[in-house]
């Protein structure tokens, strides 16, 4: 059985993802983009249950998918905070 093509080109897909993230966010480097991506995933992931987290990971490039799977800890998801009220000074 041959190695799946998505694994053969995992580094290329990851590099393309990082360049796209850098360019779309208007950042100067892919290092900055990596920190942005990790921050988004770190914030987003705990709010998903295990099934939704697996579905979400399946649309990521293989390297990010593996990274997400490695730091996944089954447990209760955290809800999103309630939106700020119009009366709140930051709302």
Question: What would you say this structure looks like, in words?
Answer:
With 91 residues, the protein is mostly helical. It has a domain at 9-70. It is built from five helices and no strands. The protein has helices spanning 5-8, 10-25, 30-44, 50-57, 62-70. The radius of gyration is 16 Å and the shape is flat. The protein starts with a helix and ends in a 21-residue tail after the last helix. The mean pLDDT is 81.
Shape: flat
Helix fraction bin: 55-70%
Total count of helical runs of at least 4 residues: 5
Give a short account of the largest sheet: none
H and E order: HHHHH
Distance between the termini: 56 Å
Percent of sequence in beta strands: under 5%
Unreliable spans are: none
Average pLDDT for all residues: 81
Strand runs, count? 0
> Mind telling me the C-alpha Rg?
16 Å
Q: Would you tell me the structural class of the helices and strands?
A: mainly alpha
Keywords:
single chain; 57% helix; mainly alpha; flat; 91 residues
Secondary-structure map:
Elements: H1 5-8, H2 10-25, H3 30-44, H4 50-57, H5 62-70
Short description:
The chain is mostly helical and 91 residues long.
């Amino acid at each position: 059985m041959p190695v799946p093509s998505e694994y053969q080109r995992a580094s290329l897909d990851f590099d393309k993802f990082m360049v796209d993230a850098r360019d779309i966010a208007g950042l100067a480097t892919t290092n900055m983009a990596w920190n942005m991506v990790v921050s988004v995933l770190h914030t987003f992931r705990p709010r998903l249950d295990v099934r939704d987290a697996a579905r979400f990971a399946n649309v990521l490039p293989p390297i990010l998918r593996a990274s997400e799977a490695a730091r996944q800890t089954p447990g209760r998801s955290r809800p999103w905070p309630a939106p700020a009220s119009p009366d709140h000074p930051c709302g």
